[in-house]
Structure formats: C-alpha cells, structure tokens
Amino acid sequence: YGDGFPRALGNRGQALVRGMRVPIIGRISMDLTVVDLTAVDAEVDDVVTLVGRD
Fold this sequence. Notes:
It is a single chain. It is built from no helices and four strands. With 54 residues, the protein is mostly beta strands. The chain has one domain. A four-stranded antiparallel beta sheet has the order 3-2-1-4, with no helix packed on it.
C-alpha cells in the first residue's frame, strides 16, 4: 500500500510471471508483496507484472 497497490488484493490478487498467473499470498504491506512462484520456473531478474498486461 505504500506504493498505491491495494491492500484488498492480499490473498485475492494475482501477478503475471513468465506468462503465468500466480497468486498473491498474505497481506500487502507497505513495502512488500509476496507471490507464490511454485508453479513457475522463475529466475532472478524475471519481470513480475502486478498491474497491467504483459
């Protein structure tokens, strides 16, 4: 929420990583949002899209 990301998306929203939707898990905090990447072969420096399309 510190950067304008809605706290209501905690445990509800999704992010996009490597073309796959992944769930946002836990609460949205001021400087941290956690996504579950277990279904994606993600690597360091991969782009995570929280708002918009990729």
